[in-house]
Design a protein that fits this description.
two-stranded antiparallel sheet; about 450 residues; about 5% strand
Length: about 450
């Protein structure tokens, strides 16, 4: 097993990979509870209950989809990248498709399944991998740095450090809230551990924060260890049964949006995490075809179970920061998602103040790729800057990528370097332009 996962070549071991897998799991375990609440429109009080998707079934579907994607990514592609239903796409599924467009959740699941089929076909034909190889190195670095800024922004929000401000959109909170102080404590502890180069510092920082939170009554001490697994039958297989319902103009736009957003969210995440782990070789992603195939099939499998688009998770960077380098850590994460089905009460201690410091620190690590961008060449600096700044400001990885890819061909053409731009990037220019003009809600 050590030889298969290339432990010696990657300079890792079982202990490090297990800690990394656990760190990734703890960083993304929130999706087990956020996803069911989001997809069922739990925040919308006046939505008819008979039109809501079953929360318990989505909980199980979320865990199973994450387990499938993570374990297969670890074994087949051998990358330390975990998968789960994506944030952002689940909000699009619930609030745009179901609530505003009034499309039944059953039909929306069918749309997710079809977008997965499109992913798989593009992956098997090698088109998706060619698109990734065509992306210039400057934009790849910008994607990584932009995602770093984005998840740091999320971490600061989750910590309650950055809050809404009617005058300036966002602002600094008063920092007196107990959970905010706990997150700040966790951030300080994690920074100290990282500066001291403690192996697994991000993970240990989360553990210390959770323990302190329980001591001061900010996090409830779990009184139950094992809980009953909810029934998945309300959502299992529904996507297949409702495939005939997607053949409408309205659903065509939905499917294309699912496809476009996840295509570049997943691609950006794969590149960013692989770059952080030092796995990119000659600006290319080894075994990219296998990684992309796993990502594509996970979309279909997740839809069959009963959840919105399953995708590669940027929180995998937390595991990489803890030392994860091989696919074994992703396998560990997948197994933990399966165990979470039986020990869900214990996950109550993994609150926003516990995960926020990890996200902030990972953002710091990922933002380091900014230094690799050639800022002296303005035709490169402009699309790179717009890529990394638009992600946090628009709260969307896909939008940041789209904006950067729109500007890159323009600046290169004006500079007289149009021939250096890969033809695929010109095709992407018109695709993104169409996306903004006609498909984006």
């Amino acid at each position: 097993m050590r030889r298969y996962f290339q432990f010696d070549e990657l300079g890792t071991n079982y202990r490090t990979e297990i800690i990394a897998g656990l760190t990734t799991f703890l960083s993304m375990a929130y999706i087990l509870f956020v996803n069911p609440f989001t997809l069922s429109l739990g925040a919308v009080k006046d939505f008819p209950n008979e039109l809501r998707i079953d929360q318990g079934a989505v909980f199980v579907a979320t865990a199973l989809a994450a387990a499938y994607g993570s374990i297969l990514m670890g074994i087949l592609a051998r990358y330390p990248i975990a998968l789960a239903p994506g944030m952002g796409l689940n909000a699009f599924f619930a609030f745009t498709v179901v609530l505003h467009m009034q499309i039944p959740w059953q039909t929306a699941l069918a749309g997710v399944f079809v977008s997965g089929i499109i992913f798989t076909l593009l992956t098997l034909t090698g088109i998706r991998e060619k698109i990734i190889d065509a992306i210039p190195v400057e934009l790849k670095y910008a994607v990584g740095a932009g995602i770093g800024l984005f998840i740091t922004f999320i971490g600061l929000q989750n910590a309650g450090i950055i809050v809404d401000n009617p005058a300036t959109l966002v602002g600094l909170s008063n920092l007196k809230n107990g959970n905010t102080l706990l997150a700040i404590f966790g951030l300080v502890v994690t920074v100290i551990l990282m500066v001291r180069k403690v192996n697994g510092g991000v993970f240990y920082g989360m553990v210390i924060t959770a323990v302190v939170g329980m001591i001061f009554g900010l996090i409830k001490v779990p009184h139950q260890i094992i809980g009953a697994i909810p029934d998945i039958s309300p959502t299992f297989g529904v996507a297949i049964k409702h495939l005939p319902d997607i053949f409408t103009l309205k659903m065509l736009g939905v499917v294309l949006t699912f496809f476009i957003v996840d295509f570049f969210d997943a691609t950006g995440t794969l590149l960013a995490v692989a770059n952080q782990a030092g796995l990119l070789k000659d600006n290319k992603l080894p075994r990219a075809g296998k990684a992309l195939l796993v990502d594509a099939t996970a979309v279909m499998v997740g839809a069959i179970f009963g959840t919105s688009t399953t995708t590669s998770y940027i929180e995998s960077s937390a595991g990489v920061a803890a030392g994860g380098r091989s696919g074994f850590s992703a396998v560990v994460t997948g197994i933990l998602f399966l165990l979470a089905l039986f020990f869900s009460p214990l996950l109550s201690v993994i609150t926003a103040p516990v995960t926020a410091p990890a996200l902030i620190i990972v953002g710091v690590l990922m933002a380091s790729s900014v230094g690799e961008i050639n800022w002296k060449k303005f035709e490169v600096a402009v699309p790179a800057f717009f890529t990394l700044i638009t992600m946090p400001l628009s709260y969307s990885i896909a939008t940041g990528i789209a904006v950067g890819f729109l500007f890159y061909p323009i600046t290169m053409l004006v500079k007289g370097r149009g021939r250096e731009v890969h033809p695929i990037l010109y095709v992407l220019f018109f695709i993104f332009l169409s996306y903004f003009l006609f498909l984006r809600e």
